[in-house]
What we know:
This protein is an all-alpha fold. It has four domains: 90 residues, Serine Threonine Protein Phosphatase 5, Tetratricopeptide repeat (Alpha Horseshoe); 115 residues, Tetratricopeptide repeat domain (Serine Threonine Protein Phosphatase 5, Tetratricopeptide repeat); 71 residues; 51 residues, no CATH class. Helix content is 77%, strand content 0%. The chain is globular and about 65 Å long. Pfam families: TPR_16 (PF13432), TPR_8 (PF13181). Belongs to the IFIT family. Keywords: Repeat, TPR repeat.
Amino acid sequence: MFKVLHMNEKYPTSSPSVLHPEVYGEKGWTYLKFSFTYYTKAIECFQQALELQPEDSEWNAGLAIALYRKESDSQKGSKTSLNIEESLAIKQLRRALQINPADGVLLSMLAIRLAVYQNHREAKDLIETALRTDPDNPHITRYVAKYLRNQGDVDESIDLLQQALHRTSESAFIHHQLALCYKRKKITEHHGNRKAGQRWRRQCIHHLNRAVQLKPTFVLALADLGLLYGEEQNLSRANELFKQAAEAPESSKSIQQFFHVRYGDFHFYHSKQEAEAITHYTKGLLLLPHTWEQKQCAKKLQQIADRRLLTEESDGPALALLGLVAKAEGNKRKAVELYEKALDCDSNNEEYLSALLELRMELH
């Protein structure tokens, strides 16, 4: 930010409300270095810089990266409802590449976004071009490896990421990407070969530990690592990691939802604290609709409620839990029926009554 102030003092404009494009651009890069909450401000700054210098390659690249991050984050864990023509990130990535066609990072980012829209042929061509452009660039490597993993080419992705580690071993992102690759191998090979599954889990733990050492606020890595320690019955270490993730600076709703799914799974499968599992699955359920994580929360809450109702048909909390799931899934009439049944079990429960009244108002 000192650089921004210095540039503004060095190159004053005719109006105090109008800044030089370099000032807008540097502000954009500064915001982009912060958390997701500043992506919108970064986008605005780059757009203001481009109003003054529309052909500048740096500001076009900055806007493309900011839009890529915001769009990727908003769609994480869910199928996109946009058409490819509506993707602002894809439009701006193409625009930036018209000005600088040899930018391997932008090429690989565009490939990842195109793959989301099933445009695999062009995406593959872009990946090959990016690797030819600058094969030793670790930023390109990590995006290419992510693309390959998403396409199921896990071993090829691992090879690329291991090569990148030889060049830059201090990247939390690369260690996290490697852990995700080994996690994929653990899942696919666990049923047929238990020893192989254990080997891949140890690799996951190793790389996730390195990731959180390098970036202690890396919530995605902390939550995955906590669950893996839960699998190994190291419950104290797992709880430490989940607590560390919970105390990290505010993250996006998609990351929060991911965290609550993982913490819920830890309590559901490993600590056997059902009340804690319900708490985290409920928080995850209510954060973002239509995501894979929300579906997982709904599925687990349904399992818990159904199991309790097998033991006791008049279990009010279990019926209310099913009502909450039905409401979150958009089935409000079913939710009303379930909350009515919950009230039959506990007629003085203000929480059930409040939820029921709210649903009835929404239906009329």
